[in-house]
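4.2 Preliminary Data

To establish feasibility before requesting continued support, the project team ran the inverse folding procedure on a target of 259 residues. The structure was first converted into the token representation described in Section 3, and no sequence information of any kind was made available to the design step. The complete token record follows.
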């Protein structure tokens, strides 16, 4: 065996072991159980979906309650999961059938798991119904998988791929205001499948216009308002599934580089 190849295998094994150990210690990654004080918001049941979620009635909203998304089988581990299935969003019409938590959040820690069933599958996780963390198979650009959309490159290397569960673990600090003016921009720290991929990443605006999220049509998305908002999941007519999602409210006086 080539010596360099052998050493590269050792390095990869050590890196993987480090990621796994860190994930277990921090309660992050696929299968992570809720931390103390966290609230479960997706457990694969219809009951929890109806109890904690509603449609976002933005300018492109085209569906109607009750929520049309389906509870379907977890194809990997058994049990059930939530599928982004609403025909109103066919053709990539984001905003037509997106769902948002009934409860708004300011600062928080979020754990969310997703599985893309087919190549090119597309959804999105919106922090405060404003700032998208992309869920998009096959895209490695600033608009791609696990990017803070249009703000960072895609850490695509950490993606487990189609047909496998993936996990985002996120600490979000909301924008800060004084006398009605924003004095600190929102920021996010994130692990993707147990690997840290964003650290105190500043978010400059709401991207995608008014159909994308709250404040998207306000001064080109830069007019962020001082209001907590719900966690939103995007529907674009693709089979993307969610499970084991929990959130804990925080009060982050300063930026948080870790969990």
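Position-by-position output of the design step:
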């Amino acid at each position: 065996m080539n010596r360099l190849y052998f050493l590269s295998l050792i390095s990869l094994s050590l890196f993987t072991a480090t990621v796994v150990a860190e994930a277990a210690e921090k309660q992050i990654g696929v299968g992570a159980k809720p931390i103390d004080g966290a609230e479960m918001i997706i457990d694969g049941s219809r009951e929890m979906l109806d109890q904690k979620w509603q449609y976002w009635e933005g300018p492109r909203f085209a569906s109607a309650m009750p929520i049309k998304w389906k509870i379907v089988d977890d194809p990997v581990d058994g049990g059930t999961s939530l599928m982004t299935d609403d025909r109103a969003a066919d053709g990539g019409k984001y905003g037509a059938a997106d769902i948002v938590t009934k409860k708004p959040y300011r600062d928080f820690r979020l754990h969310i798991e997703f599985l893309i069933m087919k190549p090119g599958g597309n959804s999105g996780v919106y922090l405060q119904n404003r700032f998208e963390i992309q869920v998009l198979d096959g895209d490695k650009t600033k608009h791609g998988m696990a990017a803070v959309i249009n703000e960072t490159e895609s850490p695509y290397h950490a993606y487990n791929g189609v047909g496998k569960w993936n996990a985002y673990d996120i600490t979000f600090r909301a924008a800060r205001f004084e006398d009605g003016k924003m004095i600190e921009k929102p920021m996010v720290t994130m692990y993707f499948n147990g690997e840290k991929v964003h650290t105190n990443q500043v978010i400059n605006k709401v991207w995608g216009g008014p159909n994308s999220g709250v404040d998207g049509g306000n001064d080109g998305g830069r007019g962020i308002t001082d209001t907590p908002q719900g966690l939103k999941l995007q529907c674009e007519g693709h089979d993307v599934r969610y499970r084991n999602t929990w959130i804990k409210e925080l009060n982050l006086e300063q930026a948080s580089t870790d969990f």
